[in-house]
Write a structure and sequence with these properties.
UROD/MetE-like_sf; TIM Barrel; 16 helices; single chain; alpha/beta; cytoplasm; EC 4.1.1.37; 348 residues; Uroporphyrinogen_deCOase; two-stranded antiparallel sheet
């Protein structure tokens, strides 16, 4: 039994005495505990691939920030690596794939990964974390949406345009779908294994959703996200598609419990468009945390007002930036805890 199940109750649309709060990328460089541990290691991948260390980092923000959920410390790019495409994580530059997907032969050699065989270190990290948390808060599992994974596998690195990946959608759509089907099959098996290992809720990150036009998003992304949601009936699923404001009405028809909003979206407009059947998550601008304590508090209160007192999970509109002052993160969290009960009573 969970001692704090606010997040799960909010995701299911049940009454909560206050709004639950956590942050994307909460386990990371904003915490001195994390920086101290990273300094002892060869790099990011050693941390991700060592279950005991990944579990330690996962729990750090629960201890230091008192958030209402832990999210397993991993990376969306473990999926393409499990499929046979190795990545490197370069300090200050981000991910790099020395080889990329270009041809039908490249796609053919990608395997549908077996979770225990190829991603067992993540599953073990979940099991270790669950034991260490001992029911304090829920544990969030996650994976990247198939389109976002394809974008990295074809492009080879982060990009402002992902023009190589997007070119494939125009010039060889069948090859793109073949790769997307393999990614989707791997992701479904992986997320199901995360749930079996102890994840209480799943989030699907479509980080590069917003660079696609709506017709391509429907064809090459949302249909595969829907398939993933349908394959996870036993836990709440959150869909977070950064920049894809046009897809939110479609997400409202999916078998997901929560829709994540980035900071450019108006939760009042979203609620008016989709009704009250889904929980919304978000969506404070991460840069708001660079302000003074008073500015952070006021921005957080305004966010709570826009979402209203029901069916809301407080978060940022994207991941917390690594140079953010941890004290301001605490102000955000404490403000949600202090003022969301007032919103429920109509006094905010």
């Amino acid at each position: 039994m969970l001692k704090n199940d606010l997040l799960l109750r909010a995701a299911r649309g049940e009454y909560t005495e206050r709004t639950p709060v956590w942050l994307m990328r909460q386990a990371g460089r904003i915490l001195p505990e994390y920086r101290a541990l990273r300094a002892k290691l060869s790099g990011f991948k050693e941390l991700v691939e060592t279950p005991e260390l990944a579990a330690e980092v996962t729990i750090q923000p629960v201890d230091a920030l008192d958030v209402d959920a832990a999210i397993i410390f991993s990376d969306i790019l473990v999926v393409p690596e499990a499929m046979g495409l190795t990545y490197e994580m370069l300090e200050a530059r981000g991910p790099l794939f020395p080889e990329t997907i270009k041809t039908a032969h490249d796609v053919a050699r990608m395997r549908i990964a077996d979770p225990e065989e190829h991603l067992g270190y993540v599953l073990e990290a979940i099991r270790v974390t669950k034991r260490a948390l001992n029911g304090r808060v829920p544990l969030i599992g996650f994976a990247g949406a198939p389109w976002t994974i394809l974008a990295y596998m074809v492009e080879g690195h982060g990009s402002k345009t992902f023009s190589k990946a997007r070119r494939m959608l125009y010039t060889n759509p069948e090859l793109a779908h073949e790769l997307l089907r393999k990614i989707t099959a791997t992701t479904i098996a992986y997320l199901q294994a995360q749930v079996a290992a102890g994840a209480n809720i799943i989030q699907v990150f479509d980080s590069w959703a917003g660079i696609l036009p709506p017709n391509h998003y429907r064809e090459f992304s949302s249909r595969y996200i829907a398939e993933i949601c349908n394959a996870l009936p036993d836990v709440p699923v959150t869909v977070f598609a950064k920049g894809a404001y046009f897809a939110i009405p479609e997400f409202a028809t999916f078998n997901c419990r929560t829709i994540g909003l980035d900071w450019n979206e108006d939760p009042r407009a979203v609620r008016a468009a989709i009704g009250d059947e889904k929980t919304l998550q978000g969506n404070l601008d991460p840069c708001a945390l660079y302000g003074t304590r008073e500015q952070v508090q006021q921005a957080t209160i305004e966010m709570l007002r826009r979402f209203g007192p029901q069916r809301h999970i407080a978060n940022l509109g994207h991941g917390v930036y690594p140079d953010t002052d941890a004290d301001n993160v605490r102000v955000f969290i404490d403000t949600v805890k202090e003022f969301s009960p007032m919103a429920r009573e109509g006094n905010l």
